[in-house]
């Protein structure tokens, strides 16, 4: 899925920012970088600046796709999100960083998507924004809202990384947590009621109110099958104790 998430830098002035961006991406598991008409990346010194700033993410720089226009960079994408603090004359539905990550990560399961960043000096143009479906704005201090391009990439890449972590945690919990059937729960409640009557905790002629409250407790607890089995074992142990006392 992450390979379908493309980070696009448009008309980047300083190649060092390309390297810093690559490093920010790789720390969060992203490797698909596309460069639209970078200013000096094509020169030997420019490429060296990018590789120097990338450090261990030099592979992201080396494998970066270079194209002439933003259209070329996103034409195969189903969702394009522009990172910009300026609405300019062409406004788009606005997402916060978390919503942006959710959109990109969920759509990337089956399609290519793009997160677009503009030039350091002036950001994305109206023409660029026309190719986007949404825009994302990173909240900053209003007294000093300038954000380095690599920092912006790092922030939004981290939100995508969080989506990956959350999804994996949910999948693991669903994989190992087997929920009980309705029949299994009803057997537990029947067993519970019988045992609690035998202990005198529940008055035999008026079990309803207490049992309803106990059902509510266990419903909120969201028991899994193993926990149901443990409780059945607890009540069976109490049952045996009652029988032994009665035999003495």
What CATH first level of the largest domain would be assigned?
Answer: Alpha Beta
Q: Which regions have little confidence, pLDDT < 50, spanning 5+ residues?
A: none
Number of domains: 2
Global morphology = elongated
Order of helices and strands: EHEHHEHEEHEHEHHHH
What is the beta-strand fraction? 5-15%
Number of strands: 7
The major β-sheet equals: 7 strands, parallel
| Structural class determined from secondary elements | alpha/beta
Helix content: 40-55%
Overall mean pLDDT score?
90
Radius of gyration over alpha carbons?
29 Å
3D architecture notes:
The protein has helices at residues 15-27, 44-54, 58-62, 70-74, 97-107, 126-129, 149-176, 182-199, 208-221, 225-247, and strands at residues 5-10, 32-36, 65-67, 79-83, 94-95, 113-117, 134-136. Helix 8 (182-199) packs parallel to helix 10. The chain is elongated. A 7-stranded parallel beta sheet has the order 3-2-1-6-4-7-5. Helix 1 links the parallel strand 1 (5-10) and strand 2. The model has no long low-confidence stretch (mean pLDDT 90). The chain has 10 helices and 7 strands. The protein is α/β, with parallel strands linked by helices and 248 residues long. The chain folds into 2 domains: 2-175, Alpha/beta knot (3-Layer(aba) Sandwich), CATH 3.40.1280; 182-247, Helicase, Ruva Protein, domain 3 (Orthogonal Bundle).
């Amino acid at each position: 899925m992450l390979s379908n998430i493309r980070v696009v830098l448009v008309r980047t002035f300083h190649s060092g920012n390309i390297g810093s961006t690559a490093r920010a991406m790789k720390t969060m598991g992203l490797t698909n970088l596309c460069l639209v008409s970078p200013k000096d990346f094509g020169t030997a010194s420019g490429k060296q600046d990018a590789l120097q700033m990338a450090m261990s993410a030099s592979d992201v720089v080396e494998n970066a796709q270079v194209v002439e226009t933003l259209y070329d960079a996103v034409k195969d994408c189903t969702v394009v999100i522009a990172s910009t603090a300026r609405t300019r004359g062409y406004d788009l539905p606005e997402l916060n960083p978390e919503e942006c990550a959710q959109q990109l990560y969920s759509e990337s399961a089956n399609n290519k998507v793009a997160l677009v960043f503009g030039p350091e000096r002036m950001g994305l143009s109206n023409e660029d924004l026309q190719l986007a479906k949404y825009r994302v704005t990173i909240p900053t201090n209003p007294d000093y809202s300038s954000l380095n391009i690599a920092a912006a990439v790092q922030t939004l890449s981290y939100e995508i990384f969080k989506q990956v972590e959350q999804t994996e945690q949910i999948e693991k919990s669903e994989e190992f947590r087997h929920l009980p059937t309705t029949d299994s729960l009803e057997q537990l409640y029947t067993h519970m009621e019988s045992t609690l009557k035998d202990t005198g905790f529940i008055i035999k002629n008026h079990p309803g109110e207490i049992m309803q409250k106990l059902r509510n407790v266990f419903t909120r607890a969201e028991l899994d099958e193993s926990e149901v089995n443990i409780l059945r074992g607890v009540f069976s142990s109490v049952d045996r104790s009652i029988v032994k006392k009665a035999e003495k």
